[in-house]
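Lecture 7 notes: from sequence to structure.
We start with the chain below.
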Amino acid sequence: MTNVDWDAEAASFDEETDHGLRDPEVRRAWAGRLRDWLPGRAGDVLDLGCGTGSLSLLASEQGHRVTGVDLSPAMVALAREKLAGRDAVFLVGDAAAPPVGEERFDAVLVRHVLWTLPDPGRALRHWRGLLRPEGRLVLVEGVWGRIEPVGIPAERLTGLLAQVAGQVRVERLSDDPLLWGGEVTDERYAVVAEVRPSGQECGEPAAPGQ
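Predicted structure tokens for the same chain:
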């Protein structure tokens, strides 16, 4: 999975139900989740591994200013086209170390990216540093496959977050077929981690998985 040529995949990427969000019911399902996960008031959202910008578009429609980052120039080109005319900027770069300079955000949104990185803990620490006080990490991950499963279990992710975040909420997504365009049997979940001001995040236990 980590060796996929994403430039080659870009043209057909949105054909996957949960990638393109072309089905109105799937789109509404993701919009509802994002509305709950992202800050209630309009803010700055950093969408890492943004792909063609489907989640970026939902965030923008909810009033947020979006910066998207993806390693694939072809994906970034499609995201720019999808959000043309909106308050959104898309950059080619590494999700683990996004090229955003000194800019800070109210939320960092990452879907199905963290598990592919060689050092997830280091990436989380870096992303935490990109947040404003009381910002939040919104991480959508899972474990896929039965014979040779890939991904990151929710328990491992909440453990990694214990040193960088305060309140951590786990939301199971496997039992909501509308998000995926059908029933799924693997582990899919979201973690919303509220970041406390420096010095307060350590020592608060992560909420257990449901």
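Points to note: The chain has eight helices and eight strands. Residues 24-37 form the longest helix (14 residues).
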